[in-house]
Amino acid sequence: DSAKMAEDLRQEQDKVAHLEKVKRGQEESIRDLQRRLEEAETIAMKAGKRMIEKLEAKVRELEAALAAEAKRHQDALKSLRKNERRMKEMTFQADEDRKNQERLQELVEKLQLKIKAH
Q1: How far apart are CA 75 and CA 68, in angstroms?
Q2: pTM score of the predicted model
Q3: According to the 3-state scheme, what is the secondary structure of 9-70?
């Protein structure tokens, strides 16, 4: 009876030893997986930060281009208004010159009539 109990005890101890070995193997696997997960997270974070930095740089570049384009647009509008104003002035001056020429022509014709009459 004690031999059977000793055998049962030995078998239980073997099972416990085997389970401890399996447990240690699984714990080692868990630690390895955690380490690999942390490395992957670190790599992903660095890649994410680089991507964010690149996108922020692109945003700054686009904002600068937009500001430059807005300034060119404002300059073009200013130039357009200036040219329109100049065109109105020149049109007005041309009308005045035409009216003066007509008045002078009328005077010349009147004088020629007076000269013919005398």
Answers
A1: 11
A2: 0.55
A3: HHHHHHHHHHHHHHHHHHHHHHHHHHHHHHHHHHHHHHHHHHHHHHHHHHHHHHHHHHHHHH
DSSP result, 62-103 = HHHHHHHHHHHHHHHHHHHHHHHHHHHHHHHHHHHHHHHHHH
Give the C-alpha separation, 35 to 31, whole Å.
Answer: 6
Q: In a 3-state reduction of DSSP, which class is residue 1? A: coil
Nearest to 9 by CA among 36, 1, 93: 1
Give burial (CB, 10 Å; 0-12/13-18/19+) of 88: exposed
Question: How does pLDDT run along the chain (118 residues), one tens digit per residue?
Answer: 899 999 999 999 999 999 999 999 999 999 999 999 999 999 999 999 999 999 999 999 999 999 999 999 999 999 999 999 999 999 999 999 999 999 999 999 999 999 998 7
